[in-house]
Design a protein that fits this description.
Helix content is 87%, strand content 0%. The chain has helices spanning 2-11, 15-43, 49-54, 56-71, 73-102, 108-131. Helix 4 packs antiparallel against helix 5. It starts with a helix and ends with a helix.
Amino acid sequence: MRVAQATARRRNMTFNQEVYVDYIIRFIAGGAVVSVFAVLGDLLRPKSFAGLFGAAPSVALATLTLAFWKEGPEYVAAEGRSMVLGALALALYSMVVCQLMVRARMSALTATICAMAVWLAGALSLKQLLVG
């Protein structure tokens, strides 16, 4: 019911109104989430976590908020699953890069290029196994 009302409301907006509303939602959602994660990053040690907590989670949540407003909950659920699977594939990639650099004594450039195939295989495998 709520999704149908939001869709009807968006249909009655002009293009300029919709663009302005998009910017307002991005500003509010992005600003609030970035602020929360920045505070969380300041509270944790080491301080290198501040950048980690200030970037990816806040952008992801702002994107999902806007997608929920424009596309509805089913779309956001699929996007959220994709983000989680991408994060898992990135973790696998990062572990492989570290192992190649430490154990095989590869340079950072060589290790990252070699591990790209692992990231791709991991991402596609996770998608196939968990999403179908």
